[in-house]
Amino acid sequence: MTGLALVFLTVMGAGIDFLVVNRLQAQIFDEAERAAVNWGASLQPGSTPRPVPRTDIDLLQLVDSRGRVVTASAAAEGRPALSTVRPPADDRIQSRTECSGGGECVMLAAFRVPQPETPGLRPDEPLFVYAGMTRPPILAGHRLQLLTAAGVLLGVVLAAWVNWWAAGRNMRPVEVIREHLSHITVSDLSQRVPQPPGCNEHALLVCTVNQTLARLEEAVKLQRRFSATTSHELRTPLTGLRTRLEEAVLYPADVDPHETIREALSITERLEAIVDDLLVLARLRSGTPAAHEPIDLGALVAQEAAAQAGGVPVRVHVDRDVHVRGNRIQLIRVLNNLLANARRHAGTVVEVTAGHADGQAVVTVTDDGDGIAPQDRERVFERFVRLDDGRRREPGGSGLGLAISRDIAQAHNGTLLVEDTPRGARFALRLPIQRETPAPAAPAPDHGERGERGDLDHLDHLPDRAGQHLQEHAEQR
């Protein structure tokens, strides 16, 4: 900014110098010409009165053609002819600057006196009037340039000081913000930066900083709560596993080793399910988008509902042309979680529908069980939250299925909510509908579809050892 001020003021100073010099010179020459013409016109035949200057043009001389001074003003008395210029008859007046050997310069105008006006003076030769003044000091030396340079330097210094003051004044609130932020640590995120008055950039910056701190505080609270809950959920089966193994070691005669191994495998399967669900949650929360493809949601719902063998029957009502764009594996996981949850709590039947509503694809899974209390309809989507009825019906559950399902719905720009229903519980999955109808895909054999999509949740229907082998094979692929 100071550099720009220096360039601007230098250019402006040079322009002012040029204008001042030209203006002053033009003014002096104009006055000299006017004085020369007026005096020359006032000469009377037979007389050469001494001129009396009435302006700053104090050097006036009447000179003949041989350079002899006929008469002069008081200031020019005793001086030789001010100039040797002799204006011709067709160009009676000329302006110029004459400098002597002593360094003195005179700005003057030379005027050729018309012959008819001086018939009695010297009719045989022309006369010339010289009118001028000593060149002013401001034009004689470099005083104007020095004054301009001093003014430019002063202006640059003033501009630099103003910029420094303005920058300091503008940065002072930023320094206050920085100082407050330096005292905020991850151990105490409840502090906030004081909000300055007004609606300027600093106030908006503080507002954004406080909003970011609030989100960060909430994220840290969720992370801490998640860590504490995860530690508790993992510690419980690990404690049970350690107890079984210690009993087998301390009391080998009283403990059946086969029974201990079966119980240890059951606990290990629960630990494995919890870890797998935690990995899925971590991938969903990392924000890394999964590969999406056009999906016929109605056909997918009918297919997954038909795969629910045994237990409570599932009734399916599916509309045609319910197409969405998403990740097939993740949507299958959501449907399986909802179907498993509904069959676990249903009394006699589970109803599944897929259709359109308000420009969205809607999948509902409804059971005829005891339902979910209104105050618990959001809590069931929290991680490791299991209601009393759920703990009673499935003691080994991880409490992560619905949390994973909601995260998947949100990753697809959709929602997963518990809606009102006359009886039981209804889960509604809403996804953005795809307007373009995808090209029909070639049908795949039923026996190979589950193995290709690698959804490890379906291995729960297989025997333990066979499921483990198939799971390892799917992971290797």
Short synopsis of the structure:
This protein has eleven helices and twelve strands.
Report on this structure.
The chain is built from 11 helices and 12 strands. It is an alpha+beta fold and 477 residues long. The chain folds into 3 domains: 2-143, Beta-Lactamase (2-Layer Sandwich), CATH 3.30.450; 201-280, Orthogonal Bundle (Helix Hairpins), CATH 1.10.287; 293-441, 2-Layer Sandwich (Heat Shock Protein 90). The strands form 3 sheets. The protein has a 5-stranded antiparallel sheet with strand order 2-1-5-4-3. β9 and β10 form a beta hairpin. The longest helix is centred in the middle third of the chain and has 50 residues, at 201-250. The model is unreliable at 441-477 (pLDDT under 50).
CATH architectural group of the largest domain: 2-Layer Sandwich
Largest sheet: 5 strands, antiparallel
Mean of pLDDT = 78
Q: Topology as H/E string?
A: HEEEEEHHHHEHEEHEEHHEEHH
Q: What would you give as the CATH superfamily of the largest domain?
A: Histidine kinase-like ATPase, C-terminal domain
* Domain unit count: 3
**Structural class determined from secondary elements:** alpha+beta
* DSSP helical segment count: 11
* CATH fold call of the largest domain: Heat Shock Protein 90
| Rg of Cα set | 52 Å
Q: CATH top level of the largest domain?
A: Alpha Beta
Taking strands numbered 1, 2, ... along the chain, how are they ordered across the largest sheet?
Answer: 2-1-5-4-3
Assembly classification: single chain
The residue ranges in which pLDDT falls below 50 over 5 or more consecutive positions are 441-477
* Number of beta-strand segments: 12
Task: Note the overall shape.
Answer: rod-shaped
User: How big a fraction of the residues is strand?
Assistant: 15-25%
- Beginning-to-end CA distance, first to last residue: 63 Å
Percent in helix: 40-55%
